[in-house]
Design goal:
594 residues; Ammonium transporter fold; Alpha-Beta Plaits; 2 domains; two-stranded antiparallel ribbon; 8 strands; disordered N terminus
Length: 594
């Protein structure tokens, strides 16, 4: 928006004064901007839901979606009753005040022109975002009751206390700590809770072998995960952009534009960096890791998106894209903390890193200058101090919460429930995909007719005439089954070649198999996938009149590449062939002449 257009809008939408108030003037533009941001940040819950559900297994989808709904629904009244007062009340440098229902005076903290309730809902959705981060790292094995309780604790007092230090006029704010939209205040707090929770909870059943090596547990729906990431990216423009909490001055208009540009640029560069890193490291670009990199870039730039230049944002994106790969690998392989969606690395590590890097790249426009701009090390020290103290406080308190839950209601689901899936055990939900079977459906339709009893005396259908049943004596045709195992990519060529040879029937199956080489190693989020069984196509052909050698030579010619994995051909003798429809046997059963 240009400055001239903005002035026209300001003239058309004048400021209003709240009835009965002689001191507070409200701006319609600022209020609309904050409310729009609140709506976008709220919609991030949908992004988190899709992302977490997609990166986990289908049997836990309903449980994941329910948790993302409830952490917002539980956090909203909790923040209204207690959290908002603790975070923004005019108390001490360490703690606000207990103010149920937000009845006190908050004029000292309200942004210019923004009414209390608009600011309150904006801060409520931020609180819910911090709480929802934890669900992904602890997915697939946490009791729903325990989840509801610790989500309540995060919104009730964990997030508000550290938030008071940073945004509520607390001691970190007084030192000049800068966290524009919440890399530390929101994301690192959620990431630390996620890390402690996942460590106490332990890994999912089957995640680690007897030798301690991690096993890849693939998510069931990459499409949903990708949609979730794109929703989050879109909503992040509200998360960061609306944190200007105003648009009623030329300075704020310019700042919002820079925030939007830096947010997008950092995420994009992080994705490119991770794509290249995984391509080199795993020999192929890792899809899920690259999507994680988008979130890593968004989280990391959140602290300093108003304070760094686009060049600084791009360099920070390079850092996040590189770090996210090795952070995910570290927690999986070294720390052995099972994080199905990478929440610890994305929100915890990159949130902390982004806050600290602001101390290097800040240009001095909205904060002190960073190290690279001649500002010295004081600002960097304050940024690092804030990260360390907030992480220590959150880790201590959430550890106590998890310990109490573990000793009372229990934190982890029973092994049998975990194997069955939390959808059934926790919610009685047979599947979150009714009508879209994720595995073969074994249910059968009810029928009033009696089951058919198959006996050797069952007559053929009246419309079918049995032509001939040959006797299998010396001189009768010989039948041979040729079983061909080949690459999926070569099946179409094989099918056409067999048809040209005169083969009129074949059975095709998708199978898994391996040869002496035991398959090819693939990687999922940095963990080697047990790919000893590779997808193949099995083609079964029974021949009599066509020479078996012709079938074999034709198949060899079509399938040959000279590389490992070209396939195998097996040849079997067949004793008899029976066509069920007509009752014909032997050679006649291979024909289909009316």
């Amino acid at each position: 928006m240009t400055a001239g257009l903005y002035k026209i809008l300001r003239a058309a939408v004048p400021a209003i004064t709240l009835k009965g108030s002689t001191t507070m003037t409200y701006s319609s533009v600022n209020t609309i901007w904050v409310l729009l941001g609140a709506a976008l940040v709220f919609f991030m819950q949908a992004g988190f839901s899709m992302c977490e559900a997609g990166f986990t297994r289908a049997k836990n989808t309903g449980n994941i979606l329910m948790k993302n709904l409830m952490d917002f629904c539980i956090g909203t009244p909790a923040f209204w009753l207690v959290g908002f007062g603790i975070m923004f009340g005019s108390g001490t440098a360490l703690f606000g005040r207990i103010d149920p229902f937000i009845l006190g005076d908050y004029s000292h903290i309200l942004p210019a022109g923004v009414p209390l309730w608009a600011f309150a809902i904006f801060q409520t959705v931020f609180c819910a975002t911090s709480a929802t981060i934890v669900s992904g790292a602890m997915a697939e094995r946490t009791k729903f009751s325990a989840y509801c309780i610790y989500s309540l604790c995060i919104s009730l007092f964990i997030y508000p206390v550290s938030g008071h230090w940073i945004w509520g006029g607390g001691w970190l704010s007084a030192l000049g700590f800068h966290d524009f939209a919440g890399s530390t205040c929101v994301h690192m707090v959620g990431g630390v809770c996620a890390c402690i929770g996942a460590a106490i909870l332990g890994p999912r059943i089957g995640k680690y072998g007897r030798d301690g090596k991690p096993k890849a547990i693939l998510g069931h729906n990459l499409t949903a995960a990708a949609l979730g990431v794109f929703i989050l990216w879109f909503c992040w423009f509200g998360f960061n952009g609306a944190s200007t909490v105003g648009m009623d001055s030329d300075e704020l208009v310019v700042s919002a534009g820079l925030v939007f540009f830096n947010t997008n640029l950092c995420a994009a560069v992080a994705c490119c960096t991770t794509l290249i890193t995984t391509w080199i490291r795993y020999k192929k670009p890792d899809v899920s890791m690259t999507y994680n990199a988008a979130l890593a870039g968004l989280v990391g730039i959140t602290a300093g998106c108003d304070a760094v230049s686009p060049a600084g944002a791009a360099v920070m994106g390079l850092c996040f894209g590189f770090v996210i790969v090795f952070s995910v690998e570290f927690f999986d392989k070294v720390a052995k903390i099972d994080d199905p969606v990478g929440a610890i690395s994305v929100h915890g590590i990159c949130g902390a890193l982004g806050t600290i890097l602001t101390g290097f790249f800040a240009t001095g426009v909205s904060t002190e200058k960073g190290v690279f701009y001649g500002g010295g090390f004081r600002f960097l020290g304050v940024q690092a101090l804030g990260v360390v103290t907030v992480a220590a406080y959150v880790a201590l308190v959430i550890t106590i919460v998890f310990f109490i839950l573990k000793k009372t209601v229990g934190l982890r689901a029973d092994p049998a429930d975990e194997i069955q899936g939390l959808d059934v055990s926790e919610h009685g939900l047979l599947t979150a995909y009714a009508g879209f079977a994720m595995s073969p459906d074994t249910a059968s339709m009810e029928s009033d007719s009696a089951p058919v009893v198959v006996t050797g005396d069952a007559p053929p259908a009246e419309a079918v005439t049995v032509k001939r049943v040959p006797s299998f004596e010396e001189g009768t045709p010989k039948f041979t089954k040729v079983e061909i195992i080949c690459k999926e990519s070569r099946f179409e060529a094989l099918k056409n070649a067999m048809t040209d040879l005169g083969i009129t029937g074949m059975t095709v199956s998708h199978v898994l198999g391996c040869g002496q080489q035991k398959g090819r190693t693939e990687y999922y989020r940095g963990i080697a996938v047990e790919a000893t069984l590779l997808p193949k196509v099995q083609v079964d052909i029974v021949v009599s009149k066509i020479p078996v050698r012709s079938v074999i030579e034709t198949a060899k010619k079509v399938l040959y590449t000279g590389h490992i994995g070209d396939g195998k051909i097996f040849v079997y003798d067949v004793e008899n062939i029976v066509k069920v429809r007509t009752g014909e046997e032997g050679y006649d059963a291979l024909q289909d002449v009316e």
